[in-house]
Amino acid sequence: MRLKSIELSGFKSFAKKTPLEFASAITAIVGPNGSGKSNVAEAFRFVLGEQSMKSMRGKRGEDLIWNGSGSSPRAGRAGVKLLFDNSDRGLNLDFDEVAIERVVHRSGENDYILNGSSVRLRDIAGLLAQANIGSSGHHIISQGEADRILATSPRERREMLEDALGLTAYLYKREDAERKLQKSGENMREVEALRRELAPHLKFLSSQVKKVEETQKLQTELKEKYLEYLKREDIYLKASEREVSGEKDAPAREMKALEATIAHLRHELDSKGKTDAPARDLVELEASGRASAIKREAITRELGRIEGELEAREKLAVEDAGIPQAEALTFGEKLVSELEGALALPPEGLLSRVKTLLSLAKEFVGRVKGSPGTALKTEDLREKKKKLEGELQLVKADEERAVNAVAALRKKIESEKDASREAERELFAAMAKRSDLQAILERIAGREGLLEREKAEFKRELAEAGALIGGAALEYQSYPIEGGVEKRDLQEERHKKLERLKIRLEEAGIGGGEETVKEYRETKERDEFLARELGDLKESTEKLRALIEELTATLQSRFSDGITKINTEFEVFFKLMFGGGTASLALIKEKKLRRGAPESEEEGNPRQGDDASDIEVEEGVDISVSLPHKRIKGLHMLSGGERALTSIALIFAMSQVNPPPFLILDETDAALDEANSRRYGDMIENLAKKSQLILITHNRETMSRAGVLYGITMGSDGASKLLSVKFEEAVVVAK
């Protein structure tokens, strides 16, 4: 990779577009003081991503833009473009030429452009780091900055050396991994917090779903029992209807014939002046007795039904005698816990907690309603039973009186009979027969009435079944059963079981089951998703930690090897600059207080006995020098010129170990005498074998080593201009 050119447009004193091409290994830029030649070095800093305005001698971005003159209006933006020959793919882009451009606007906005496409500063920095062009600026040494590597702290010196050794790409990767690790940690804490928030609600919903499942089992059982009950009842009703219809036909026909006979006999007696009053009285008494018997049978049946329902409810009351004290206490504790948790929640978390409290309250209210409701129904049934028992005693007494009266009247009629009263005897026999037939027909009518009530009850039961199990109630017609009509007590037992199931379902509460299950599934899926996400984050965290450890080990290894190599070159250049002596770099570790930790009274040093968590170990690089023929052992004892020579020796040593594509030296030779200038020139020629050099200089010796000279001058309008200057002319200008 080779630097082909730089183009300045509206940057500082370069009002017009000014290109500089670098066709030689060493290019020198010369010009009088104040001509703007150092602005070229700052243009390099700018386009390579420098963010410090101080490093570019400005306070804000607007200071970098040509501000205009009497003959030239001010510019709206400043731009600098670098062009690289990338035939060897030194930059990881599949282009033979790579153009990097940065533009700053007066609004302060910056644009970064790579081969015509807008990119981020981070993209530029990452691309350049691959070619050992880092952010610390070790490859751009401006006037007065040569001493920076000596004056800086050990930690900052280490960063400059890491940059010079081409470790910036690894540092970027590690920083990126550390950011991702920190973000993963934050995400893990957020996910764990969400799971903790979901946990009580999920636990509550789980218990509710179990109740819903139990209710669904009850509904399934109820459906099965209902279908069997309805099918059995349907069979019984149809068979009873056929039976009653068959029993009624013969007595009805006989009654019709008998009525005709009685009418004929009455006509005959009327013609003889006789009456059938005793017979009519007997018939009326017998009818009264039959009515009492029918009423007694109806009351007895109703009493049997009520006693069966009472038995079922009393059994259920024993099985579930209201709400136990322990359960009420548990409800209270759970309610208090949920309310306390709700106080600590952010507004967005309250909705979920309110749903939990609402479901909890509904469940408890349902249980409370269930117990009193069952007790009230049981008490109503007992009152009704007591009333029917009283009515039954009265009906039995009426029936007994009618039976006794019929027996007495029969005896009286029999005693009054004689052979001469044949017609009366026939009438009496016919009326007695009619009375028997009426009793039969009334019993049949009673059965018909009972059958109608049973049909009505069947319809009501079918409607109730539809309300409880839906359209499935109509499936009873195809429900398979074995056998035909069976004893009614078996069906009564089924009915009692149905009633018990209904009561259990009513107490359990069957409303909102689908919504509860749906909410539980959604909440459980959310929790499972968060659990998977947490697992992925933990796995990602482990991988990131392993990557950071690997990158740290690589950095330490390469940095250690690089320091060894730099030390070798540093020793050579130092001896060359000073004619002897020694110089070396050494890794050091310093203990420092973390930011925000309490400091000691003197110089902010860590105090003895400080908490270990407040102290961090900072790794850095120290420089040791020993000048020939002098008892100077430390940097602080060096003169200004000696510091400059030491800095140059170290910078050149760094450049030899891991040469950057180009090196910009802005008047770093200003303080050198003639002898040292020659040494400096020799080192420049040696460096040019590995890196392109752009030298901003006044030094004749330095200029003599350049293959191309650019002259910078400034006109009356304050704008810098580029001139083609011969070497001899450049030397004169430099004076």
Automatic annotation (TrEMBL):
Domain RecF/RecN/SMC N-terminal span(s) in chain numbering: 3-720
| Region ranges (Disordered) | 593-615
Query: Does the record bear tRNA processing in its keywords?
Result: no
Point out the coiled-coil segments of this chain: 378-426, 488-554
Q: Does the keyword rRNA-binding apply?
A: no
Q: Which UniProt keywords apply?
A: Coiled coil
InterPro entries given in the database record? P-loop_NTPase, RecF/RecN/SMC_N
Per its record, how is this protein called by name?
RecF/RecN/SMC N-terminal domain-containing protein
